[in-house]
Write a structure and sequence with these properties.
The structure holds two protein chains of two kinds. Chain A is mainly beta. Chain A is built from no helices and eleven strands. In chain A, a hairpin with a 4-residue loop joins strand 7 and strand 8. The mean pLDDT of chain A is about 90. By secondary structure, chain B is mainly beta. Chain B contains no helices and eleven strands. In chain B, the strands form two sheets. In chain B, strands 2, 4, 5, 6, 9, 10 and 11 form a seven-stranded mixed β-sheet that branches. In chain B, strand 9 and strand 10 form a beta hairpin. The chains are: A mainly beta, B mainly beta. The interface between A and B is medium-sized, with 23 and 26 residues.
Chain lengths: ~120, ~110
């Protein structure tokens, strides 16, 4: 069975500081991995996805994530936080062989950016 | 504009009163899905549909029904809502050929009293 663990339900960083949001997964097959962002009162928006191509994936708004098979991790980073990055971030995993296209979402990490 | 539209955005109802949350997409996506979002639990899939007249249960289907009579619409039906169905609901869609690129609706916040 697949699962996703996001360490830290709340993360605070200062504006201009590095953003690091952690995601570890469990999967019996090589997974597809995703990061989504949710701004207040909005739906989820895809930030980036890993689908077995390059292990370092670049997404929108300056975010990137690196797939590390040995660590079963897919942490999300951004070199310099902006106030507009304040949102909730969800990591998700999917089995590309399942045929159901189902995501397993993590419980989310709320990012706060301090001025 | 390409989008997934859910209605209503907010709904307060009483226990046992049937309700329908509508979802419509204008991108000709084959795949559509419903999720509920609860604090500390993330998003959990309720039902999904691979195409017209093809639907299947997700992880938490109890108390919900869906139908897919047209490609663009995928309503979520609560025949007899209960307070434990108070949640934030999201509809999402994608092409099957690009099934890893969900587009989400803006959500429906449902309160059952």
């Amino acid at each position: 069975a697949q699962s996703v663990t996001q360490l830290g339900s709340h993360v605070s960083v200062s504006e201009g500081a590095l953003v690091l949001l952690r995601c570890n997964y469990s999967s019996s097959v090589p997974p597809y991995l995703f990061w989504y962002v949710q701004y207040p009162n909005q739906g989820l928006q895809l930030l980036l996805k890993y689908t077995s191509a390059a292990t370092l994936v670049k997404g929108i708004n300056g975010f990137e994530a690196e797939f590390k098979k040995s660590e079963t991790s897919f942490h999300l980073t951004k070199p310099s936080a902006h106030m507009s990055d304040a949102a909730e971030y969800f990591c998700a995993v999917s089995d590309p062989t399942s045929g159901t296209y189902k995501y397993i979402f993590g419980t989310g990490t709320r990012l706060k950016v301090l001025a | 504009e390409a989008q997934v539209t859910q209605n209503p955005r907010y709904l307060i109802t009483v226990t046992g009163k049937k309700l329908t949350v509508t979802c419509s997409q204008n991108m000709n996506h084959e795949y559509m899905s419903w999720y509920r979002q609860d604090p500390g639990l993330g998003l959990r899939q309720i039902y999904y549909s691979m195409n017209v007249e093809v639907t299947d249960k997700g992880d938490v289907p109890e108390g919900y029904k869906v139908s897919r009579k047209e490609k663009r619409n995928f309503p979520l039906i609560l025949e007899s809502p209960s307070p434990n169905q108070t949640s934030l609901y999201f509809c999402a869609s994608s092409f099957v050929r690009d099934r890893w690129g969900y587009t989400f609706g803006s959500g429906t916040r449902l309160t059952v009293v």
